[in-house]
Design goal:
Layout lengths: L1 H7 L46 H7 L10 E4 L7 E7 L1 H4 L3 E6 L9 H9 L7 E6 L12 E2 L9 E7 L4 E3 L1 H5 L38 E3 L3 E13 L4 E5 L9 E6 L24
Antiparallel strand pairs: 1-11, 2-3, 2-5, 3-4, 6-9, 6-11, 7-8, 9-10
Length: 282
């Protein structure tokens, strides 16, 4: 009888015979943080929008660091010389909004025919310098032919100044990268300012890694100086007095735009509440 009862009852499966996926595992966490998490504008973590791969989504992500209005061109020491809007870039035609600004004057005989036709189409005199400034939306596009004077910036506001740094020619490792050089004595002969070894022999593949800091040409690169304060504006002479130093020698071209790390200036063209769009309020 006992054998028949065993045959009729369902078999009992022991836990160690069950597949691992059927067991209910309880995840144990470590110590919980009592501070609230900081907001993250990148696509990491829950409750964040999924990033899209379209051009519109990319422009939306860059919106908070794109100025509301165009910048201007100046000659160091900063003077605005016949700065004028030459052309527009639109999202429908070019994929983004931008304003092409020119400054100075150039004789038509020294301008190429395609560029001369570009100026003639927009009814603007030939310019010596042409620079493009990105803007957030269509409201930042100034009318073609509009002049931009020193009064475009306000006293007390902050600007970002971009200019090519002073070229220093071929420089050694100590001047270019701040290397300490070789010892001044104790066996070093005529190589006190030399760079030294450029890489290992066997372990690294017997080669010099790309990007190795070595002697070479120094300077002549665009340098951005952020948060430069405008102290005084002379619209009659087109002069701007800035507090601090900017890159480049005297007479070089300087690109000025509203500082992206400070509140946007309170100008009539900016929409309401735009002063807080730049992020930092310090």
């Amino acid at each position: 009888m006992a054998s028949k009862a065993c045959q009729n009852s369902s078999p009992v499966l022991l836990p160690f015979l069950l597949p691992r996926v059927s067991l209910h595992h309880v995840t144990k966490h470590g110590i919980k943080s009592i501070s609230t998490p900081r907001p993250n504008r990148f696509n990491k973590g829950p409750n964040l929008p999924t990033l899209e791969s379209s051009v519109e989504a990319a422009l939306e992500r860059k919106k908070h660091t794109t100025p509301l209005r165009t910048g201007a061109l100046g000659i160091k020491k900063v003077q605005l010389d016949r700065v004028q809007v030459v052309a527009h870039k639109t999202r429908r035609r070019n994929g983004y909004f931008a304003v092409q600004v020119g400054s100075g004057w150039k004789h038509p005989s020294n301008v190429t025919r395609p560029l001369l036709g570009h100026f003639a189409e927009n009814k603007v005199s030939p310019k010596r310098h042409l620079v493009e400034f990105k803007v957030q939306d269509e409201s930042g596009l100034l009318g073609i032919g509009k002049m931009i004077g020193a009064s475009w910036f306000q006293e007390g506001q902050y600007v970002d100044a971009r200019a090519n740094s002073r070229g220093m020619g071929f420089a050694g490792g100590m001047k270019r990268h701040g290397f300490h050089g070789q010892p001044a004595s104790h066996g070093v002969s005529l190589t006190h300012r030399a760079m030294g070894s450029a890489g290992q022999s066997q372990g690294g593949g017997s080669r010099v890694y790309p990007g190795k800091r070595m002697p070479g040409r120094m300077g002549g690169e665009q340098v951005t100086t952020q948060n430069v304060k405008v102290v005084k504006v002379d619209d009659e002479k087109g002069l701007l007095v800035l507090h601090g130093s900017i890159a480049g020698p005297d007479g070089c071209l300087v690109k000025l735009s509203d500082a992206i790390k400070k509140p946007w200036p309170n100008v009539p063209g900016n929409p309401p509440g735009a002063q807080l769009a730049a992020g930092s309020t310090a």
